[in-house]
Every structure is written in structure tokens, then in C-alpha cells.
Amino acid sequence: MRIVIITGMSGSGKRTGMKMLEDIGFYCIDNLPAGLVERFVDLLAQPGNEYSKVALGIDIRTAGSMKNLAQVIKGLKSGGHETEVLFLEASDKTLIRRYKETRRLHPLAGDGTIEEGIRKERAELAPIRKQATYIIDTSNLLTREFKAEIDSIFRKNEKYSNLNVSIVSFGFKYGIPSDADLVFDVRFLPNPFYIDELKTKTGLDEEVRDYVCRFKETGEFLDKLTDMLDFLIPNYVKEGKYNLVVAIGCTGGKHRSVTLATALYERMKTRTDIGFKLTHRDVNN
């Protein structure tokens, strides 16, 4: 029997994740106390029961659950059950916004602020997060993208990496992306904006790509950046980083940055050990 423990930060999308697992054939139970998990699994594993896939939602609302969960997971694995932990994550900024939008109280906030509740929860969940089989950061995920991640892992059984790399093109005139980890400025390349036939086109058009890529500096930059990411990515994985945003900027975010971001994505996406996503933030501005 395949058992998925789904847990993580309050407000990161656990209920949505449970519904998605239910849609692909999992028998789902939410808010089960950790102390009852092994007994419940034993009941489901009895002869005559036909449960082959079970998802159990466990979170900070149930007193003592997080303290006992690590031992429970160990017990399930030693009992021969195929047990995986899906940990849902989101940035503090995203969680605060979600709580304000829904006007709900954080379960650990008490008389304090939402931010204080989030800080306490992160500390309590840290040991479980280290045990996670999969970590999904829902901060910038659309519902369909979240569903695609769930399908990839639990329906298609594709190889999954806990590090997801977002390659983002942007225009400096609109500001650097606030969540960028690595920022690269490609304004050293000639600007197609000043060529009449290219001015109204973007890096999504072949003519602009051909123009930007004709310069030897473009190829050298891509080679060096690819080299750097090949070095950095394994080290980020080793340190437990789960989301890396690589931002490539030019003046308006339409020509050079779009071309370079796309070219980098095409080079990197063939790696099967890491998830890659391409976004052009300002191409339509």
C-alpha cells in the first residue's frame, strides 16, 4: 500500500493538494492525529480491504502531531509500508497575504500576529521538512501548475527534484523581480530596440533571436552562465534549497533578456534531475 503523508505550512495549499490526490485515486483522510496513523494504516491493510493508495493530511492544528510524526513515519517504513512525505511550502509574504485575504487566524498566532504564528510553525515543522520526500513551493504556482506537479509525482510517477529553477526575463525599467536569487544584466549586448524592423518585435520572434545571438559575446555569456549553474545547482540541492529564481534583465524586458532566458532554458531543461520553468515577466509591457 502506498501511503502519502501530506503536511507543511498552514496556508500553503494542503486541502487543495488533498483534493488533487483524491482525484487521481487516493483515499484521503485529513487532520488525522499522528498517534492514530499507524493504527489506521493497519486497519486499511487488513485482508479484504482494497485500498492501494492512501493520503493522510496532518498539520499543526492537531496537538502533538508534529512532535510524534517523525517517529510515526519511521514506524510505517519499518512495517513495510511504502511511505512518502509531501511537504507544502510557501514564502512568509505569500502566507501572510493568503491569511489576510481569507480573514482567518493562523493556528499558532494566538494573541500575536500572523507573522509570529508563521515563525513558530516553521520552527516546529523543521524536523519534518528534513524528512520530506517531496517539497513543493506553492508561492508562485497557479492551480493548474500545482495539479501538474501532483500528477507528475503521484500519477505518472516521474522522477522529481525538490529544487525547482525558475528562469525569468525582466526589464530593469520595471524593477528587479523581488524573489530573484541570481540577477544577470545583459544590457552589455547591442539593443534590437534601435533597429526599426526589430523595435516592435520581441525575443519570442526569430528575427530578434537571430540578431541577439549573432554576437560572439552572447554565446560566451551563455556558456559561462550554464557553467555557473551546473556548479551551483548541486550545491543548492545539498544545502536543502527548494526554489531558485534566475533573473535575466535588459532595459525593457522585451528583446535581449527574453532571448537569453529562452536560450538558457533550452540548454537546461534537458536535465532530468531538476525542474525548470521559464517566465517572461515584462515581454507584454
Q: Could you spell the SSE succession in H and E letters?
A: EHEHEHEHHEHEEHHHEHE
CATH topology name of the largest domain, in short, is Rossmann fold
Strand content: 15-25%
Q: What would you give as the CATH superfamily of the largest domain?
A: P-loop containing nucleotide triphosphate hydrolases
Strand line-up of the largest beta sheet: 2-3-1-4-5
Report the structural category: alpha/beta
Number of strand segments:
9
In DSSP terms (H or I, runs of 4 or more residues), the helix count works out at 10
Query: Tell me about the biggest sheet?
Result: 5 strands, parallel
Would you mind describing this structure in some detail?
The protein has helices at residues 14-23, 34-44, 65-78, 92-102, 114-131, 143-155, 196-199, 206-213, 216-238, 256-268, and strands at 2-8, 27-30, 53-57, 82-89, 134-137, 164-171, 182-185, 243-250, 275-280. It has two domains: 2-155, Rossmann fold; 164-280, no CATH class. It has 285 residues and is an alpha/beta fold. Helices cover 44% and strands 19% of the residues. 34% of the residues are buried. Helix 2 (34-44) links the parallel strand 2 (27-30) and strand 3. It contains ten helices and nine strands. A five-stranded parallel beta sheet has the order 2-3-1-4-5, with helices on both faces. The longest helix is centred in the last third of the chain and has 23 residues, at 216-238.
